[in-house]
Amino acid sequence: MAQTHDVTSLIDNARVSMLQVRVVLICIVIGMLDGFDIQVVGVIAPTLAEAWGVPVKDFGPLFASGLVGIAVGAFTLGPLGDRYGRKRTIMISTFVFGLFSLLTAFASNVPEMIVARFFTGIGLGGVMPNIITLTAEYSPARARATTVTLMFCGLPLGLMLGALSGTSLIPIYGWQSVFVLGGVLPLLMLPLIWKTMPESIRFLVASGKDPDKVRKLMRQIIPGANFGPEDSFTVAEAPPKGFPVRLLFVDGMGLNTALVWVSFFMNLLVMYFLVNWLPLLFVQLKLPATIAFQSTAAFNVGGMIGALLIGRLLDRSNPFPILAGAYGIAALAIPAITTAAQTGHPLLLISAVAIAGIGVMGVQIGMNAVTANIYPVSVRATGIGWALGVGRFGAIIGPLIGGLLIGIGLTSPQVILSTIVPILLAAVALILLGLRGRGGTMAEGRGRRA
What we know:
Structural class: mainly alpha
Oligomer: single chain
Distance between the termini: 17 Å
Order of helices and strands: EHHHHHHHHHHEHHHHHHHE
Mean pLDDT: 81
Number of helices: 17
Low-confidence stretches: 438-450
Shape: globular
Largest sheet: 3 strands, mixed
CATH superfamily: MFS general substrate transporter like domains
CATH architecture: Up-down Bundle
Strand content: under 5%
């Protein structure tokens, strides 16, 4: 007899399959390429400042241009995953950021680079919400936060490799080499994504597409399962109509969404402020360029460590006190960074920057997992995409604020200390989310058969 199967329940109760492992690994690699491309502008800034005669305070618009593009991509390409599929949107986004990263290598002045970085950012902004969503939808509920944070570790790993490229590629091959590498690798990934990355099962079921493909994928997740040709599959959510941004504010979700956006905005403001400005600020403090790049890499290593620790904790307990506490640790690390930078103590500096990374980047990665759990399949990519898009405005403002603070005469230590304020504001938003409880998940719609 024909049976109806709930794919969410099947995935939650099954052992992790090689198909699911493959999805996570591919998304980790894409995240690495994303992170590498984000970091390289900060890495080449000292070289460009000297080669093109650009004052340090004028790098704010260059840093911000890619982040504006990321915001545009998160708002536009991100939700396309809910309408046309995660895999297709990931491929389009990867092609865009790979192509324009490669074209950045041919820029001959700051305006040309600003344009190239803007279009690179559009691709970067579209890929991230969809690899987060795809990972979440192939993960069992018992380990979803851990899996998403593990996947997202690809981003800080890519940021770290981007920072280290400043000490390896640039002295030998010039600043253009990092953009060539950051462009060629994503383009080479496209055939692999097409061949080996599956579409989200939950998207296929919710949208009523290709039931034979759903059965084939489910047999890979549950080897030996006897899903007959007459069997059907459901998810307990209706597919969205159009771009369902308004659904982020219904069923009591409006305040939760607003608080999530505040946290993303403040966190990404600090994160991209530090990622872009730390190398330049440390060089201004007369630290060797090698120490400046190593410290930036330490920030990303700390982010990976924080993500893994926080991810395990999120699967076991209330996430919001954990995330707010990590912010508190980051706020304490900021004064230690300025002290170590002024005294020229490299080990203390690298350690303090790594601790700040545990808090700032670790919490951001954890928030991606929490946000994926707040929204249902039908608007998950939209929810994550818009949270990241709003956050990108903070990421845009952060580098611009850095240039402004330097322009009005603040010292490098004072500029770094200013990041404590948005860190504490993000912590307050998470505390308020915690007081509202985790019961803010949107009401589920009716199931749809495939």
